[in-house]
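Help: read this over?
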Amino acid sequence: MPIEDVARVKDSGVEVDVIVSPRSGRSGIEGIDSWRNRLIVKVRSPPLDGKANREVEEVISAAAGSPSHVTSGHTNRQKTLRIEGDPAAIISKLRESIE
């Protein structure tokens, strides 16, 4: 499944739909859940006091090379993140991170 199925170009950035797996053994992007059409992000943090959200933002920012923040789904495993920057570069880096 291509990254374009879970990411959309919006203004001067990209929105990406993710599903979070908190309390994992390691942090990182695991691929794409084709059933939910979401990027799978594993984080070590528990889903308490926004810790998992902050770690998701860090993982996505590192993979995309641009700052990101959760825009919806703050208390849900399914979230949408906004990544600021050049959309073509962001999509390219995200594609590399799941291959």
